[in-house]
Structures
1.
Amino acid sequence: MAQTEKWIKSFEHFSRKITDEKSFLNELDSAIGDGDHGSNLTRGVAAVNEKLEQQSYDNLSDLFKDIGMVLVSKVGGASGPLYGSAFISMAKQSKESDDISSLLSSGLDGITKRGKAETGEKTMVDVWAPAVDALKDGTLDQSVIDSALESTKDMKATKGRASYLGDRSIGHIDPGAQSSAYFFESLLEAGVTDE
Amino acid sequence: MKKIINQPDQVVGDMLNGLAYAYDSLVRRVPDTTVIARTLDPSGKVGLVSGGGSGHEPSHAGFVGKGMLSVAVAGQVFTSPTPDQILEGIKAADEGQGVFLVIKNYTGDVMNFDMAKELAELEDIEVDSIVVDDDIAVEDSTFSAGRRGVAGTVFMHKILGAAAESGASLKEIKALAEQVNNNLYSIGLALSPATNPEVGKPGFELEDNEIEFGIGIHGEPGYSRENLKPSKELAEEFVSKLKKEANWSSRDKFAVMVNGMGATPLMEQFVFMNDIRALLDDGEDLDLVYRKVGDYMTAIDMAGVSLTLLKIEDDKWIDYLNAPVEVIGW
């Protein structure tokens, strides 16, 4: 299967997970944010699906750029610019290489540049960074994703809306880390990570 | 949830259409966007753009018109507008003298407005901005997203709007905005939570007799939960917190705003203002040169109030606050 097809399949998995788990993501966000992470992402992936149905793609760059622009314009909040910047950054990188770890590594750069977050701040970066590291070593599997996600539970938020809670943010999974976990699970399921 | 709505995800569009229809002499909705722009003829002055999540009405569209904002960009409820919409707003406000953005300090707002600014610069529109962070309930430290932008933003709109109307340049407006922001202090409390129509249930829970000090305008947590007290004691808590930040002395000039959070009647807001007067005017001997009470920066149906103080560094600010405007919500 061509890379573009695998990525489209992966995005289908991602949208299904987001849509199915919309209430769960909202619930995670209610605990430490404003309770709409699931609703906002669901609106975004629905708009991406509509776009992908109308369009056909023969290269990753166009695909990523469209996904990124739709997410930026439909999701809102902080998640829109963050997921959007990841895809726009991957769109640029895909002109150099379609190697999965270099793509996702530039996606991570897009997120950290936009959000100015580092690891350990209880954000989506805490899933993205270990997942990208594992991709580089060829060791990304479900257990890597699970433990990265779980690690956000004991962290204290110092970025985003959850940071207003200080110590009270400890004990909750970060909603952006959860949606990012769905994103990497979808890559595994669609075989994007298979060489 | 009991609300006068149709589809929860259509609330923002329906609201903007109703607003633009009711006040069509003042504002118009830019087609296919969530942008509310004023109907005035071009003035050749700096454009002033604000915006943010919906649910804070009359902010922000209620301040669009002569003497205040050129344009307001609405996001989904409690969610920042997106860069493409903000870009449309910037274009609608641009009259060749540059566009100034008023952003409240929330992670999402800052990122989306920054992206919009980058896009506008690609189209050769000169853009500058201020990030308002007046909420003193939050410690300003590197361990948080910093102080939030709340009701003080409305004073920012009024002062910058009057300055832009009087022909101030983009550079002058930027300098003024920074000076105002450095002298702006707000603090809020909630008696009951807000329900976002898209979420369908209250954003947090409070017991019947419980209040929360330091709450944010989307129900972000405050600094303490206590039993309900008489208005006078609530006012004392606010004033003691504000005094630590504003370091005032007798006869210092201040503008003061008691702001309703959405579900608190004006009756209670005036009672609260009366207690603020006793503490600040009689007690601290401050010169409260400008006073305002009402719903300006709400949180949907949250019950509660916030208090904003602006230390007047320059008497011109008093003129700016008093300058006439033609807007829905001032």
Note: Chain B has eight helices and twelve strands.
2.
Amino acid sequence: MGKVNDVLQRFRGMPEGGTIVKDDAYKAGIAFSMQVPAERLREVAAVLNEMECYLESMAALDFQDTFEIVYHFNCFEPRSRFALRVLCGHDEAVPTVSDIFKTAMWQEREVHEFFGIRFADNPDLRPLLLPEDTDEHPLRKTFGKVNAYRRREEIYG
Amino acid sequence: MAEQFLEPVVENVYTLNLGPQHPSTHGVLRVVLDLDGEFIVRTDPVIGYGHRGHEKMGENRLYKQFMPNTSRMDYLSGMLYNHGYVLAVEKLAGIEVPERAKYIRVICSELNRISSHLLWFGTYVMDLGGFTPFLYAFDDREQILDILDRVSGSRLTYSYCRFGGVCQDLDSVFIDMTRAFLKRLRSRWSDYENLVTKNIIFIHRTRDVGVISLEQARQFGVTGPNLRACGVAFDMRRAEPYEVYDRLDFEIPVGTKGDALDRYYVRMIEMEQSCRIIEQALDQLPGGAFLNPKVPDRLRPPKGDLYFGFESARGQTGYYIVSDGSTMPYRLHVRVPSFGNLHVLVEAFQGTLLADAISTMGSVDLVIPEIDR
């Protein structure tokens, strides 16, 4: 639990750092989650790279009012996973972190093709898993069969 | 003057499509390689041929109905994927699991891990030109498939776990077969060592080939045996112990250099460690129920999200499930280990010989349908 506490301390001290939710019991599989404004994402990612964390997973969510991208980071120590949450409107772009974490290059390509979220300054946003001429975004809640399309506060509220 | 010849001659680049039907790509993977002579100057893996939309399917199914999908992502370690999925949903919905079921799952998962590593061992050595070890490995693997077939009724896509337990209890025949298999497999280690591990051709094809540094592994999110070959003892079974792994004694093998030979060693030792885990779990196997009968068919987990990480045969796998309180997940994302393990090859291939690239690609143990989802 060493490094993840260092990371937490570092973010506590950051001016206008987002809301931090701690989870000491590790109930949701993460030590803490932090909401980051999109324009500060690159700054936070650079700090995490310096502290030798790695980007484990990147998942986007489609809500009626907003997109949410959840970045899961981890750092080769027991129980040290944490999440960054970035909200972005349906017609906004998110800054890329692909030049900071190389794995983000493919992860962002995947999120881009499935949700249509633009990553500003990512040099390579070709479709990864879908055919190269595809013009649909299949994981959006407006595509195909959909069970429920909710607002964000209905789940986290 | 000698340096002049080492400069890559950009205008003379030859583009080669490795795959999508090449036998050493292990699945439908195409790798576009730019070659300068026999040296690789640029790598661009093209994936997605096997995309089935598991994540979209997950949003339109009951939690229970998604179970068969999980073992079809990585068809070589289907039991491990089942296991991780039920653990994630059990944690999300707060379901109690009987002790016996936990041990049964660990035994079956570790058997599956050995079968996956055995298949990797056979096909990897075949990629390098040795055909005989492949037959030995498949002979051993067949025993595991028979054992798992006995309890789950299936050879690859098991769907054996259930929320709150497993679908069928172990019987004494299963236990006898497993113990006999472990004895047999251990008698094979010396054969494998003489055939492959000490083979000078094999060593020359793998030592210092396809080196992945720790920094590259971190940057690309490489996990599992490929990460441990770089010298980091990071294993989800230890880092975030689930089921009964904290009660079992096993070692986490690590390498030093992160080359193909280290990855080979790590996997071979891991098989022996899995044997130890199975043996201890069989000794400690308690009696009692194997399934919690109170789990409803239509689960309604409370609102919220959960990330559950576990160790599959290829590395760290994770299910990220967001529940809106209804009977179907709002979002189900799967973090697959082969994704990073393939992406890192973009750098690992740089400047190597084409023949070494085949060796490197085999050594990271890719399963393409897992990446494509």
Note: Chain A has a mean pLDDT of 85.
